[in-house]
Design goal:
alpha+beta; eight-stranded mixed beta sheet; 1 helix; binds ligand V3L
């Protein structure tokens, strides 16, 4: 986002950055004070809970990951599953 923050979801031993469009959508909801927002990941609806800071595939509570808002410059695994070397 313009102020240097991004949204991340948890992977094994690290964090993945959301793709830019999704990160911006989550940021917009966060700035509005929404409690949650929905995003689309590979055709599946996920709910990002902005109070609990988790994402979960809709109606599949086992598919739950922590999320966080942090600086765009932190070490990360990659973006939306695409590794950065
Ligand atoms: N954006 C992109 N892909 C996602 C997202 C998202 N917000 N949420 C889940 N997936 P689940 P390591 C992740 C993918 O939570 O080695 C990473 O992006 C998720 O991809 O059970 O464990 C990597 O591609 C997973 O493939 O619904 O760190 C991959 O895991 C699938 O949706 C491995 O990462 C099911 O996730």
């Amino acid at each position: 986002t313009e102020d240097g923050f991004q949204w991340y979801y948890e992977g094994r031993n690290g964090w993945w950055q959301y793709d830019d469009r999704t990160s911006q959508d989550i940021e917009d909801a966060f700035k509005k004070g929404d409690k949650s927002c929905t995003i689309l990941v590979a055709g599946y609806v996920y709910v990002v809970d902005l109070e609990q800071l988790v994402q979960q595939r809709q109606n599949e509570p086992t598919r739950c990951r922590r999320v966080k808002r942090d600086l765009a410059t932190i070490p990360k695994k990659g973006v939306a599953g695409l590794r950065i070397e």
